[in-house]
Amino acid sequence: MSVLAPLLAAAGLVIGASPAQADASDLCAQVGYNAGWRGEALELAVAVALAESSCNPSASNTTGNSPASTDRGLWQINNYWHAEVDDACAYDAQCNANEAFRISNQGKNWQPWSTYVMGHHRRHMDVARAAVARLGRPGPGPAPLVYPQESGRVVSARSADGRLEVFAAGADGVHHAWQTQVNGGWSEWERLGGPGNGQLAIASNADGRLEAFAINGDIAQHRYQLSPSGAWSDWEEFGTGGSSVAAGVNADGRIEVFASGPKGVFHRYQDAPNGGWSTWEPTGGGPEGSRVKMEKAVDGRLEVFALNGSTFQHLYQTAVNGGWSQWEDFGGGGHDVTVDHNADGRLEVFASGPVGVFHRYQTSPTSWSGWEPTHGPANSRLTSDRSPDGRVEVFAVNGDAAMHIWQKGVNASYADWDTFGTGGTEISATANADGRIEVFGMSQAGVHHRWQTGFSTWSEWAWLNSTSGPPTK
């Protein structure tokens, strides 16, 4: 008898007269269904497990893990980044599924799984669909959420193959570098032209092609990958000038772009996934000349936050893929803002000003805390991202110092600010394919980066390759 049969039976799957013919994917489908995935979300979960472990509950891997650690069980839950999951659970099929359901935010966030980031799950989708069909209980399910990337003078996002690409705005236009392998080293910088001393944003098309946006006081332009992880187009006209730009992806895959200027905030959006663009449309107000950032609510609605020296306002979609609310007051003005999401989907907002950094967070999907002081560098540039275990980390830089704070636990309160380097002009954080945060800092010396080597350990600041990239004023 197949050794798979008792595992399937223990999971509650009716095997029938020929248990030796059962497929390993049936186990993943059953325990995935029991954990809570449904429909297309269940199919995707099974495909990820097939890519990770071939749906073998005893599978383990230590190759290429940094820090040294072990990926365990069906969804290869790492014992370093998820020490809360012990071995007894990790190698138990149902317990592993339950924890993967939790870590993936019910199937809405598969970014911690490198096989998903690099698209390796796609080759298993037909087998996964067949397993879910045999289960006979597909039901509806959530699609993974695509969260916006940080915008500013330096931006970074992962190509479809998992390699990070970074763009930095200098006086002579936009400069570009990329990882030469997933989680690895970097190319030399190349100069692309485009708007000088611009503000940048980046987002992923529905087919996986990255699209970059650049704006300065005179012009807005964009360029895009011609194929997933491939070469880039030339710069193309995208509108007149402005102060700041941010981009996010609707639940249906259409990119939406917001830009601020002297008459408030305007937006453009794709008419269809991977398609053409609307004209610029007013949003009914918004702070003039503001810093604009975007995030995504737990149900998939985009949210926009805009701040200038006197005003902070907030705008959000009233339905998934739908229209927009009126601008709402979100507090006093400030210098910069960053927005991120907890592991449970609740949004976290940090804003800097002349007396430090303040913090608001959702207490429910529709309600917010008041502003709370965190201290931190005054009038700093801000960025944030999440560690592989889902804890939010926030980074701040001004002319004197770089500092960071982090959640002491998942969905928890924050530690005190800690030194992260000397001063600079801009900072941006993103995540590698293996989940480790990578931070880019700009200054008059150029662009440097630091990256996580563990939960609380970091590399030193270094150039990406042999040159420093564009300096800033």
TrEMBL record:
Coiled coil: none annotated. It comes from the Bacteria. Residues 29-115 form the Transglycosylase SLT domain. The keyword Signal applies. Residues 1-22 form the signal peptide. InterPro entries: Lysozyme-like_dom_sf, PLL-like_beta-prop, SLT_3. The keyword Signal applies. Residues 151-466 form the PLL-like beta propeller domain. Residues 366-387 are annotated as: Disordered. Keywords: Signal. This is Transglycosylase SLT domain-containing protein.
